[in-house]
Amino acid sequence: MNDREIPPKQFANHVLKQVCSHMLADDIVVEPNDYMAMRVAFRSLGGLWSEVAYGDIVHLELLKKVVTAWGNEPGRKHRSEETV
Hints:
Blueprint: H1 8-23, H2 32-44, H3 49-53, H4 57-72, H5 79-82
């Protein structure tokens, strides 16, 4: 394996962190298990990480929909709620 090649889970988590940071409100708390849930949802809807790596618009749009749906679920933790 090439030293510069990123293992699939690390790549997926890195991409998800970037998408979440750009699409979700700054105070939404994203925990490690949430990334796993988003990865599973993306794959179950037919998303392919290899296509995301190559910049395929269809798979990127699907990923954005998964992240948006996750962020809009009721019960999301917010940092503003934690600081009391």
